[in-house]
Amino acid sequence: MTDKIEFIEASEESFVHEELENEMEKLIEKTIEDEKIELIEDKNLLYGIVLNLGRKIMHYMDDNELSFQEKTELISFILPKIVDVLVHKELIAEENVSEYKEFIEMSVPQIIFIIDMVVTKIDEIDGVRDDKLQISENCHIPCSIL
To answer: What pLDDT digit, counting tens, does each position of 119-128 carry?
Structure first.
């Protein structure tokens, strides 16, 4: 991978270098496999999964020394794709796809805030970077606190 990740500007949207997109898709699939995620029928579980993946993506970007704007653009581009990967893996029922995708797209700003300002900072304070956040069916993220 190159030292600097390239971004291509096209009609007001930033698209990530194809190699990086492939890396993120592998990361998503590995997390799904590691967490032994089964059929997702709850938005709270989906939110927890997306937070966990966003956190791993943020660590990946920290390793590549991207600016905050580059991180935000990348996360905004990748997070909605998580639903596509989950659908491809048959982990989201077809009837929930559009609802879940819309939910994640609307949640991207909150997710970026939580990941960058809360989760990543806690990792820095603790001096630990545990890339394995436990997710369970009982995972309830209090969105209202934002």
So the answer is: 556 556 555 5
